Amino acid sequence: MNTTWIIVIIFFVGAIFVYTRFKKTKLVSNFPFTEGETSIFEEKPSHLAHKQYSLVGAKTNRNYHILMRPLVKITNKKRIIFAQTYKKDAIVYSVFSMNDLTETEVAAWKDLGYTFATLPSGGVTATTGGKKAQYEITFAATMQGNIAAITRGAEFIMQVYTNDIAGYEKALGIKIPVS
Length: 179
Description:
There is one protein chain. This protein has 179 residues and is an alpha+beta fold. 23% of the residues lie in helices and 38% in strands. The protein has helices spanning 3-22, 103-112, 148-151, 165-172, and strands at 39-43, 47-54, 62-66, 70-75, 79-86, 89-97, 116-118, 124-128, 135-143, 153-162. The protein starts with a helix and ends in a 7-residue tail after the last helix. The relative contact order is 0.18. The chain crosses the membrane at residues 6-22. Keywords: Membrane, Transmembrane, Transmembrane helix.
């Protein structure tokens, strides 16, 4: 087998990898809103960090990501959409909800590849005095059963650095405890 065939095979394997990676791009414009669901709050926070602790292993074994050009949307159904702006749209990174998904929604969201987590009561906290913004809001959620297989994680934490905590409280309908 000569080098030309090896290069062609490597090219096709790379093309298949890129195609499968980006064929299910999760854009906000394609987001599966339920009937009557609309965005009631939108903010571009100064900083957005994501931590994910694995199901097995030590607490030091975690994924940590910083989203560039972050976007946070909250819907009237109490769903928090974390996204990263991209060109004229935004790529959805994860969705947190105050309510569980129905069985049909779980199946649809799993097919679409969305990462979904359920916020427990008391899962939203805030601290003050940060260098990046006035408030650091922490959303600590647990992965919903069938969706956990997609991300291989159990504890899912999003940290939003913002100056507008009142907007989050009003949109979610809760008082966020600040320490």
